[in-house]
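User: I'm writing a tutorial on reading structure tokens. Could you give me a worked example: one chain, its sequence, then its tokens, then a sentence or two explaining what the tokens reveal?
Assistant: Sure. Here is the example chain.
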Amino acid sequence: MDKAAPTSRSADFSFADLQQSKAERLADRIYENLFHAIVTGMITAGTKLPSENVLAGEFDVSRPVLREALDKLREDGLISSVRGSGNYVQNALGASRERATGDDDRDALERIGDMLNGIELRLIVEPQAAYLAAKRRGPADIERLREALDRFSEAMHTNAIMHYHDYAFHEAVAIATCNPRIVKTLKSLEYDVSRSVTLMRFLVKFQPLVRAEAVQAEHEEIFRHIEAGAATKAKRAMRNHIEHARTRMMSSRPGF
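And here are its predicted structure tokens:
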């Protein structure tokens, strides 16, 4: 149902570098980026999204593809449309509480279980990948890792969406192992962005900027050890990083 237009807040976020590759299911990619930005508070409730034409241009997709992603966000209660005005971000947490059912709770728990299973597998694969990367990395690998770190930092300081650049760093570590099967395994774990809004009830006090800074510092430590060829230290730093990622996902402690 159309609603009266709320007071619009300035859209001071950026969609730069979100196009990613022209992979299948572009609408899902757009949905996941916008979902992540909304539920983490990067795009706050009450914000008016850019027009469909502008968003389609930013993501470099057609308007039908964009509309498919927006439709999913409406179904989740994350945005609402106001006739003659545009699309507005809703309170993600409040929407989940209003809509939550027993089935929603079970679905959220299943998704959390899937995410934890994925992190468990990462704890097996990625520390050893960092170890091998420190042993085998070449100049191109160091350059790729540095570029991923710089893009993450730029996104953090310009209020852009960061999770793609987070993944890019881990992918660069995998590539530096010179083992294509490790790269393929990591791609299968490409940071599950949960599509259940009810999941956010378990992440009430998520603080995007504080935690992004922690992630950045951990990435920098891993990079320093890989660049120096310190394989054992790189392995330990990667394991600590993933353990912290698991804690950050489930913890409401500020500053972690």
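What the tokens reveal: The first strand starts at residue 79 and ends at 82. The chain has a mean pLDDT of 77.
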